[in-house]
Design goal:
The protein is α+β, with helices and mostly antiparallel strands. The chain has two domains: about 70 residues, Alpha-Beta Plaits (2-Layer Sandwich); about 45 residues, no CATH class. Helix content is about 25%, strand content about 35%. The longest helix has 15 residues.
Length: about 120
């Protein structure tokens, strides 16, 4: 089962702590405040409890969705990233330093491929 964690947290330090928890549980960042990855129902409950304990009474909105593998296959995505030597621009940029300017277009589920300028 795939898990999606979405959060809206005004505190920078708390937002960073929630992201770290998600990464510690093997989730991958899909947007600035969104993570996704495979996780059992027990692990979903565990990560959600850990996040809510970390939040305490501070302002936050966190949502965790479990999505069956059949439904995740219906998911569609379109991502366009522009990458330039030494810098990276784009909403979902990873900053991995591509050696030439290029645009990456991702559709469907899976990893992005680098596409150089023609």
């Amino acid at each position: 089962m795939q898990t999606i964690v979405l959060y809206d947290v005004p505190s920078d330090s708390l937002r960073t702590k929630i992201a770290t928890i998600c990464l510690d549980y093997g989730l991958q960042r899909i947007q600035y405040s969104a993570f996704m990855g495979p996780m059992s129902r027990n692990r979903q409950e565990e990560v959600f409890q850990k996040i809510t304990r970390r939040i305490g009474k501070r302002e936050a909105n966190v949502r965790l969705f479990g999505i069956c593998d059949k439904d995740i296959q219906l998911c569609k995505q379109h991502v366009v990233l522009e990458r330039v030597v030494g810098t990276t621009r784009g909403a979902a940029a990873t900053g991995d330093g591509i050696s030439a300017q290029g645009v990456v277009v991702v559709e469907g589920i899976g990893e992005a491929d680098d596409v150089s300028n023609d």
